[in-house]
Amino acid sequence: MEQAIKEFFHENKQWDLQTFRRKQAEEIQVVADGPPRNTSIIIYDNGEGQHPEDFENTFLSLLRGNKINIHFVQGKYNMGGSGALVFCGKKRYQLIGSKRFDNKSNFGFTLVRQHKIAESVETKRFSHFRYLKVDGKIPSFDSEEMALKLYGRNFRTGTVIKLYSYQFPSGYSGFAQELNQSLNEFLFEPVLPILTVDKKERYPNNKVLELDLFGLKRRLEEDKNSYVERFFSEEYEDQLFGKAKVTCYVFKPKLEERDVKKSKEIIRDRFFKNNMSVMFSVNGQVHGSYTSEFITKTLKFNLLKDYLLIHVDCTGMKPDFREELFMSDRERLKHGDEANSLRDYLGKKLRKSQLDEINKRRKESIGLESEDTSELIKSFAKNLPKDSELFKLLQNTLKLEERKDKKKTEEKKSPKEKVDAKSFEPKRFPSLFKLNKKKDGVNVVSLPLNGEKTIKFDTDVANDYFDRMEESGELQLALLQIKYSGKSGGDKPGQDKEISTLLNIVKSSPNNGTIKLTANPTKELQVGDELEMKVSLTKPGEPIEEIIWVKVAEPESPKEPTPKEEESYDSIGLPELKRVTQKEWPAIEAHGISMNHETVMFPVGEGDKLETIY
Question: 330 in a domain, yes or no?
């Protein structure tokens, strides 16, 4: 897709500017027609178009697989277009018209409709669809130009489809608002901009009737100063699924001149209209999603529940794995082994990502004194039978902790806990890239056979370097040579092996002067094997490179299980109780905790554990 854009749309760099983007968006239009309570949709694409005699093998075919060998297009069963028919009113009508881009053929058209069971002469168990032919042919006529209710132009060539009496979900009204926002979400990173168009006759008081869209990714990164506090990415290369890139967007809990409640409403309306907190996309189109339940149950970052959007780009995954991941309707994830293993993988990796640091910082920066609630729960627990259902239920929710040990660790902490971090002054392009903490000038990293190792590199490039829309860079790995242990033949040239067959890799985007590369060995390696690797940070001109040696070490010994102490009432603790005065409301609102005269309490937890009550 990216190659096609560079080759055929040389002006694409200008699409960040409203005027140029709007002009391009007029080539693909979604236009509202008919009264507001019975809306029809006109979809126009100024693309290649079809000859009338080809309709039956393209628009009107099912299971033909005419896209099966075209790798860059969506769909393989040739059934996607028919999926909209069931939403075309009670009578299921759809009009298709098209003219080939070279203007050498007629304009062809046909009408598709549902044939009900009762209308059938023969007794049939199911309704079916029929399309119009005249004298055994798709009807057509010669045309130069037609007024087909398009915005800013007449129809000359391309394709136009009309969906009659389309059944939208409840709450949809103006095309330039609700529909535009939904398309932005489901087309997270579309290849081309699109125009949604409403009509003055439908909504006379609506001042915004035409609005272009170019995907939620661009909106998030354009609006990052207004809504997004921070975003970062991690690239995964694993034998489980191949390649994937995950980008996390963390929203501000409180927008300027808005309280927490209103801020949350605005963020939800603008970025979570379809309750997709985790989006899985292929070529920029969302194929499945998780709700915020993934953030609270799997990641256990409850404070981020309403303020975190995660995008998983599945384009580079192994085709077989990806096929097992999504349903054929390209809207839902399957509940199979692949989907479950990917969910577990994402949970483990993201819990150790920058999200952990962000979540901790939000908790710690609230900074209110808590009251001691230990005596209250102890007196309650002493009179409660330990085998009772109520006690078991409380154990699942209440925070368990060793208070005595906690006091000891608090006493050991040095008074100078927080050291002022050096002010980081990022550059647009890197001038520094080197291994953190070299040993005697040699870049050697020890990697346990059954574990993983995080390798840190110092840099001076901006945090968004891997993710920004313009002039972005990447971290590249190349295998130079392998030294196998205990095998004859010595060294082996690097090109015989791909690095992904030897190491599972996680690349993290820069974070205040540090780039992390996490690796763990695959089954191809054994103890004593050594890899010489070139790690390159790209920039305009020549990249900056570091050569490192990775040596596979003995497996880490399993941790001995901690002996289980006898249960004691001293280890049971209520969640922290933090009383909030009215003067403190603004301070905690800045962290997403809503507090006002109507608030009795605000509970904060981690996963299923209740930690703090404000």
Answer: yes
Identity of residue 572: I
Q: How many CB atoms lie within 10 A of CB 345?
A: 16
| 314 and 172 in a common domain | no
Q: Does residue 566 sit within a domain? A: no
Q: How many domains does the chain have?
A: 4
The beta strand positions in 464-513, using DSSP E, are: 475-483, 491-493, 503-508
Distance CA 31, CA 40 (A): 8
In this structure, the answer to whether residues 270 and 337 fall within a common structural domain is yes
pLDDT tens digits, one per residue of 202-231: 888 888 899 999 999 988 887 667 899 999
CA distance 425 to 71: 43
Note whether residue 560 is domain-resident: no
Tokens representing residue 510 in the block: 């820069």
pLDDT > 70? residue 408: no
Q: Report the share of the chain in percent with pLDDT over 90.
A: 51
Give pLDDT tens digits for 295-324: 999 999 998 999 999 999 999 999 899 989
What confidence tens digit (pLDDT) does each residue in 476-499 have? Answer: 999 999 988 865 444 554 446 788
| Final residue before a domain boundary, out of 192, 213, 234 | 213
When pLDDT is averaged across residues 568-578 and rounded to a whole number, the result is: 65
Instruction: Give the number of residues written for the chain.
Output: 614
Report whether pLDDT(15) > 70: yes
Residue 292 β-bridge partners: none
Are 160 and 62 in a shared domain? yes
Same domain, 521 and 443: yes
- CA neighbor of 58 nearest in space, from 126, 145, 156, 131: 131
The pLDDT value given to residue 612 = 86
Burial of 98 (0-12, 13-18, 19+ CB in 10 A): buried
Residue 533 contacts residue 481 (beta carbons within 8 Å): no
Residue type for position 362? R
Q: Do residues 221 and 467 make contact, with C-beta atoms less than 8 angstroms apart? A: yes
Whether 417 has a pLDDT exceeding 50, the answer reads no
Beta strands per DSSP E along 357-494: 433-435, 444-448, 453-459, 475-483, 491-493
Domain limit, last residue, from 163, 197, 213: 213
Pairing mode, strands 40-45 and 210-213: unpaired
pTM score of the predicted model? 0.84
Residue type, 348: K
- Provide the residue range defining the domain that includes 350: 216-364
